[in-house]
Amino acid sequence: MQLLLLWFLGLGWLRSAFADLTFTSPLSSSVFTATTGITVAWQGSTAGAPISQLGATTFYLCSGSTASSTTLMTLTAGISPGTTTTFTSGEIDPAKGPSGKYYFITAKTTYQNADVYYYSDYFTINGLTGGFASSVISALSAAGMWAATSTLSTSAASTSTTDVATTAEASSVTEVGSMALS
């Protein structure tokens, strides 16, 4: 029992030691149109180190799940989260996937020489006409974001097969952040 309590206290300390980026946009209720882009905004958490301690950050449009994400496109790179707290992407290529609530933002940054990943909630993009590879559909299904009766076609050519979390150059990777599923 005491060991379990120490483990939970250790997790709390570890979480508070990280600089924590929290997405304020997109939220699970956000709806964007491919032709107008996506507004991405964030703030630092009061629980962790200041977000000014995060390194240059790259933001990706992704689908799938945090356990098996597929990068659809890079939205912007080289942002310093402590000085810039919002941007709007350019137009989203309509062939990147189908319209729907299948998308999330991944922010890849560094903190104390380790790669750290933050995830937005799933959100909706309308005006898309593409399909997903079966691996993306499987990951969405596992996350509860894809209906088994969906008739949308799949297209392996419409998605990149790069998994952001597996392309880390640093020796350690930390995933933080949370997603709202509905």
Automatic annotation (TrEMBL):
Residues 1-19 form the signal peptide. Keywords: Signal. Residues 25-125 form the Yeast cell wall synthesis Kre9/Knh1-like N-terminal domain. Pfam families: Kre9_KNH (PF10342). One of its GO terms (biological process) is cell wall biogenesis. It comes from the Eukaryota. InterPro entries: Kre9/Knh1, Kre9/Knh1-like_N. The keyword Signal applies. PANTHER family: CELL WALL SYNTHESIS PROTEIN KNH1-RELATED. This is KRE9 family cell wall biosynthesis protein. It comes from Schizosaccharomyces japonicus (strain yFS275 / FY16936) (Fission yeast). The gene is knh1.
